[in-house]
Amino acid sequence: MTLDANYLRGTMAAVFSILQHTACPESVAFHFLAARRDGPDPLAAIRATFPYLDPSVYRFDPSRVRGRISRSVRHALDQPLNYARIYLADTLPADVRRVIYLDSDVVVVDDVRKLWSVDLGGHVVAAPEYCHANFTKYFTDAFWSDPDLSATFRGRRPCYFNTGVMVMDVAKWRLGGYTRRVEEWMVVQKQKRIYHLGSLPPFLLVLAGDIKAVDHRWNQHGLGGDNMEGKCRSLHPGPISLLHWSGKGKPWLRLDSRKPCAVDYLWAPYDLYKAAATALEE
Prior knowledge:
By secondary structure, the chain is α/β, with parallel strands linked by helices.
């Protein structure tokens, strides 16, 4: 996961939910990517709240990606740390061969080891796949009207997947040069605007139609509402192992404003932020 002061409350809730629902919490290792910045150290809050954890923390240099970022529909999507997932394989130690990447706005309500143990079947990434979604909307007319660009999906059946929940074969990612491949599409975006969102579309360009599909229960996404207005959304039908407040609205902000969506009450039991803030003050 990434570690950022603005999303610290969500990160702590996610960590707590993982530990609470894992039959063997001592088998779970946490890796955090953090950018250098002034102000309170988010890691101090993590350590104060979970003193028995020994997380690994890696510094992500924002300058590595800042020049490659193009403006998207939402300012939060343009932050360098949002792109850190592209560089996981370059950042983690060589002996780390598989990771689960999670956004900071999730809670896990099942044993995360079930997700960890998925058979990747030779793929570099596993994630819930949504083939009913209108895939064309993630790219501009400039992309689809260019035969050379749109040909990137030839031979694949591309489907949308959300990069906020991914199982990644880090070793295979390194060998395949996937970081460079994602970066190359970001260069194209700077030259000719081919998508509107932040770090998601270049992942789709490289991997859509070539991932291991995981049961949808592992990413009940979109609970933050739509990207423009953040309107409330209800749960999708079916079993749930992971709740994801992707979209504009975050549950801690809506709860604090006393204008929560119904699904935000599912996040509230994992909110440890106030307890951590008190511990830090003491």
